[in-house]
Amino acid sequence: MNDTLTNTVSTDLFKQHQERIHKNNLVSEKENQALKDSIKELLKKNNATLIAHYYVDHQIQALAEEVNGCVSDSLEMAKFGKLSKSNLLVVAGVKFMGETAKILSPEKKVIMPTLEATCSLDIGCPAEDFKNFCSQYPDREIVVYANTSAKVKALADWVVTSSIAVEVIEYLDSLDKKIIWGPDKHLGSYLQTQTDADMVLWDGSCIVHDEFKFDGLQKMKKLHPDAEVLVHPESPKEVVGLADMVGSTSQILNSAKNSKSKKFIVATDKGIFYQLLKNNPNKEFYEAPTAGNGATCKSCSQCPWMGLNSLKNLEEVLKNLDNEIYVDPQVSLQANKSLSRMINFKS
Ligand code: SF4
User: Any residues with CB less than 8 A from the CB of 185 and at least 6 apart, and which?
Assistant: First the structure.
């Protein structure tokens, strides 16, 4: 399958994008303030809604909160966009999030600060290859993770996010359905362990969560025996095995807020620390350790593509109103069915 493709493409892009994230950060406080003021004006002028993911730069998250936009996980982002009265949605995240917003709100214009922001799970699961994979198992229900292209979603019976995946798989298993799962193998294997469902897995992974290491985390736990370990299920299974709590970004945030613990080790993208620290000023948070320095780049828990969203390109897109997301109407219609199943699942 596509492991080689995923790793080759990702390592190159990862390096390039890390350099660009670094450049983005070389902006003075004064310039940042001027950018924020200008973005607020432009949002108002264009009657636009800003929707941001928990993994983007903390300044964009803060701005989205300030202008009554939304900061959340990918499912809530899309739902918020759908309910918004605005006809222009500005999605700060990665491309599949913009596509999902467009699929759920085809009548609205969806733009993004950059169209280069993608995801290793999306890259590693081309629609044609996934279709061939699925054709080997015609009797199985196709369930895909939200981190996929519109075309892959259109091939699926169900789309799920990590916050709802266990429940949907449990439900399908209770109906004696056999399942094809793609693209994240770690999340897939976690779902199998949790539900005992009969699943065949596509071989993809998230380059950020894949970097969390068992040995490092074990050592860190010894250093902080009183810390609770919160792990995103896109992490390798050995790392998940060390967790006190496994869950999506929203579930990690809720768990940290509701726990009596004062200390946490967190294995997910470091963008989430903005919300963790804001919501829990009296608690301590530590980043779970990653692999360290590799041959091609320094491993870290920061998504290179989420990091491409900056105040600068956010201002630019609102001035030019370009970087629009288009989804083929036929693909959109099909993908909408599998997405709507998830949205209606709990309602
Ligand atoms: S953190 Fe991983 S799963 Fe999320 S967008 Fe980046 S590469 Fe994709």
Answer: 201, 202, 203, 204, 205
* HEC readout, 162-227: CCCHHHHHHHHHHCCCCEEEECEHHHHHHHHHHHCCCEEECCECCCCHHHCCHHHHHHHHHHCCCC
CATH number given to 3-118+304-320? 3.40.50.10800
**Residues contacting residue 346 through CB under 8 Å, at least 6 positions apart:** 164, 167
Beta carbons of 205 and 10 less than 8 angstroms apart: no
Domain positions in the chain: 3-118+304-320, 121-207+329-345, 209-287
Q: Do the Cβ atoms of 53 and 72 come closer than 8 Å?
A: yes
Please, which residues have CB within 8 angstroms of residue 56's CB and are 6 or more apart in sequence? 92, 93, 271, 306, 307, 309
Domain 121-207+329-345 has CATH 3.40.50.10800: yes
Which tens digit of pLDDT belongs to each residue from 222-281? 999 999 999 999 999 999 999 999 999 999 999 999 999 999 999 999 999 999 999 999
- Whether 287 and 301 have beta carbons less than 8 Å apart is answered as yes
- The whole-angstrom separation of Cα 242 and Cα 251 is 17
Q: For the whole model, what pTM was predicted?
A: 0.90
Nearest CA to ligand 1 atom 2: 206
The two structure tokens encoding residue 317:
């897109």
Amino acid at 314: L
Residue 303 Cα to ligand 1 midpoint, Å, equals 6
Question: Do 39 and 31 meet the contact criterion of CB atoms below 8 Å apart?
Answer: no
- What residue ranges line ligand 1, CB within 6 angstroms? 55, 94, 119-121, 147, 206-208, 234, 269, 303, 305-306
